[in-house]
Amino acid sequence: MTTDSAHAPATPRTAASGARPADHRRTGTPRPRRRNRDTVAGYVFLSPWLLGFVGLTLGPMLASLYLAFTDYNLFTAPEWTGLENLTRMAGDERFWDSVRITLIYVLVGTPIKLAAALAVAMLLNYKARGTGFFRSAFYAPSLIGASVSIALVWRAMFSTEGPVDSTLNLFGINMGGWIGNPSLIMPMMILLAVWQFGAPMVIFLAGLKGVPAELYEAASVDGAKSWRKFISVTVPMLSPVIFFNLLLEMINAFQIFASAYIIGSGTGGPGGATNFYTVYLYTRAFANNQMGYASAMAWVLLLAVGVLAFILFRTSKSWVHYAGDSK
Amino acid sequence: MFRTLTRRTLTGVAALAATGLVLTGCGGGGNEPAALDTEEQITLNYTFWGNDDRAARYDKAIAAFEEEYPNITINDTFTDYPSYWEKRQTEAAGGGLPDVMQFDYTYLRQYGDNGLLLNLEDYFGSGITTDAIDETLLATGTLEDGTFAIPTGYSAWSVFQNPGLLADTGVEPYEGGTSWEDYDAYMASVTEAGGGTVYGGTDTTQRIQDLELKLRQQGRELFTEDGELNFTQEELAEHWTEGQENRDSVTVPQSKLEEINPVSGFGGAITTSEMSWSNFLGGYLGDSGAEEITIVAPPTSNPDEKDLYRKVGLMQAASAQTEHPEAAAAFVDFLINSPEVGEIFGATLGIPASETQLEGANLEGPDKAVKDYLDSIEERIGDAPAAPVNGFGAVEQTFWDLGKSIGLGAVTPEDAAKQFFDEAAVTLGN
User: Fold this and answer.
1) Nearest CB to B18: which of A291, A309, A323?
2) Are B204 and B273 contained in the same domain?
3) Average pLDDT of A175-203?
4) B366 CB contacts (<8 Å, ≥6 apart)?
């Protein structure tokens, strides 16, 4: 990866995209029968996944699309109500509250998490003793972060007279527990998300390895200092990776559930401050028996995330530089 | 590798990640009748809500049952109350309810009317003995199509106190059954003496039972005969507002309660009193670690009104889809009638509804205190309200969640009342 990708910009930009049609010609056109057999074999190998996809993902998704337009209480057959779920949603204060809370979490949490991931990735990019250990150490939280046990541990850490409160007290900061305080629970949730920066960090690290050293050398010759190099070399060269991480982390952040459910006792507590979109969706579905409404919420979320991703893609044209793009 | 990341792969990744958003559920179940065979190895799933104390008691009861029926094995699981019902709803939708369940009167109509519960009447006299069960209590499990659950016992709303904790504050115990002002004054003195670590009680407007008690003291009920809310939005806002003074300086701050949830303030030994159902005594003893817990009558604004009632709370029910209905019925019968189970549980599932179990319970110590309490409030016991409307469980939970939010200052009583009425309109309209 290191040598190949480092030399990638040197090769003509059409090389990557040109390779694929050539492949097709080589294996496909001259021997059609072989190709058909390959296709069949391909689908056979795919079939376990396809079965799972159709049975466990596509089917339920279509079912939920239907339920989104019904009144379904889990006990009696769904009743078609058309757009009623959507109109109710528009006037549902708790729904808008959950949208607001989730957006704050996504829009504040994701950039901080990515910034932390990039900063640590850059530190770990230096060759120094023990980097292997630190890479694993920083990556570890993202493996366990979404688990129930970690949510329980954070709950304990941030309660009154828990480790965080006691430590802050030492410095004369007396805030009490964060868990029971509606205005401190969001910072804590964001902190929990940021703490799991390991996954984007590893991807940043791989991206940083791919930035050719010549560019930094050239910048140095031109008299650029570290900050300038970061802004003019690292960021543009890393922009596809930044975009990739941004997209993935944003979509992930929208789906926050387990930790919010545990920390907020499953009811969006304290005082509705952890009433994230998915928590509210879950409450509607399983505590209030409004599966139709919950399905409609699921589809609204899917569409909203789709639209946001689309907007990100559109803006990306002006700031993401792909290897092979003319910009 | 990331240098050649293309727009196309990114679109693919985004689409895949977004697809993962939609939640789904599924399940399955069988429906074959089987005779109670003493040879065949049968495993029944049983589930209940409660705490460690209750779990330990069930372990003993199940061991006793398995000794009597060596071919039946009981697999038991438990959770706290709110998640208990979330799990059951999912299972109900998927047809995978456990064979036998601890049940709640609140949810009886919802499950029974929808054909999810085994009609236990089919086993009366042949597996389930009903002779010893109090008739009025037995009738609470009966809907139009049959009897779908049997109550373990009954309880009544009450004030619990922790004498050990109270002694440290030097405040005299609340005597019970006097005016609300008396009780408020008691709570205030404890909180003042407690110095920020011990409080006199918990917000007495937070739960729907608090409102029910207040309404019944005015000779009213929570619901009309048609199952509609029997109070106005303004009255609800007023009810919650009345608790404001106590919330500001007397009762335990809601933020502290959030931290120890699902244990209550009284269970966590940070309040000296709490109002709840009398069968909570065992759980409170376990949670708080207190040596003694006393129980007295709730305050009243109108001593002549019959504001309290015998509440059927816990019940035992079986799934309509169980593969071993005979075995399930045998287990229900054992849980309801066995003197041994009575001895194990005492009054922690209510004062036993079955005479044989009550004898076995041989109530003493704290259980006797509950029985004595129920006897002592005889004069205040009125007719029980009609069976909970379909959806009452959700309404009750919404009320409590909003009550907590008010305590945290996250919502005003007026807004909370509006939200409650919006919510109830949808839930009860179902």
Assistant:
1) A309
2) yes
3) 89
4) B281, B282, B285, B292, B293, B346, B347
Do the chains contact at A288 and B394, CB–CB below 8 Å? Answer: yes
Output the pTM of the full model: 0.78
SS3 A30: coil
Residue carrying structure tokens 């930790």? A259
Q: In angstroms, what separates the C-alpha of B17 from chain A's closest C-alpha?
A: 7
CB A198 within 8 A of CB A143: yes
SS3 of A100-136: the string is HHHHHHHHHHHHHHHHHHHHHHHHHHCCCCCHHHHHH
Residues B194 and B145 in one domain: no
CATH architecture of A2-16+83-319: Orthogonal Bundle (1.10)
DSSP assignment letter at B3: G
ipTM: 0.73
**Domain of residue B277, CATH code:** 3.40.190.10
Lowest-pLDDT range of A152-161, A242-251, B17-26: B17-26
Helix axes B208-217, B392-407, angle to 10 degrees: 100
Strands B146-147, B153-155: pairing kind:
unpaired
The pair of structure tokens assigned to A86 is: 């959507």
* Mutation to test the B interface, candidates A65, A67, A74, most B Cβ within 10 Å: A74
Over the Cα atoms of chain B, what is R_g? 24
Q: Which of A88, A203, A302 sits opposite B22 (nearest CB)?
A: A302
Give the domain extent around B81.
42-155+311-380
Residue numbers in A near B394 (CB within 8 A): 287-289
Ranking A18-27, A35-44, A278-287, B307-316 by mean pLDDT, the lowest is: A18-27
CB-CB: which of B21, B419, B426 is closest to A93? B419
Question: B225 with B264, same domain?
Answer: yes
Neighbours of B258 (CB within 10 A): 27
Distance CA A305, CA A37 (A): 39
Note whether B295 and B318 are same-domain residues: no
Contact residues, A window 28-67, toward B, CB-based 8 Å cutoff: 56-57, 60-61, 63-64
Together in a domain, B306 and B251: yes
Cis amide linkage into residue B82, ω under 30° from 0: no
Q: Which residue has the higher pLDDT, A280 or A272?
A: A280
Report A:241-300 residues touching B (Cβ under 8 A).
241, 243-244, 247-248, 251-252, 254-255, 265-273, 278, 281-282, 285-291, 294, 298-299
The Cα B376–Cα B388 span in angstroms is 26
Looking at the fold, whether B248 and B391 belong to one and the same domain comes out as yes
Cα-based distances in Å from A306 to A309, B155, B166 = 5, 53, 58
Task: Tell whether B8 is within 8 A of chain A (Cβ).
Answer: no
Residues A86 and A296: their CA atoms lie apart, in Å, by 7
pLDDT of residue A325: 55
Is B116 a member of any domain? yes
For residue A258, the distance in angstroms to the closest alpha carbon of chain B comes to: 13
**Mean pLDDT in runs of 10 for chain B (430 residues)?**
53 54 35 58 94 92 94 93 86 89 91 91 92 89 91 94 94 95 96 94 96 95 91 97 95 91 92 94 90 94 92 92 93 94 90 90 86 92 86 90 92 94 83
Task: Label residue B228 exposed, middle or buried (CB < 10 Å: 0-12, 13-18, 19+).
Answer: exposed
C-alpha A210 chain-centroid distance: 23
CA distances (Å), origin A19, targets A12, A227, A243, B104, B238: 12, 38, 25, 67, 75
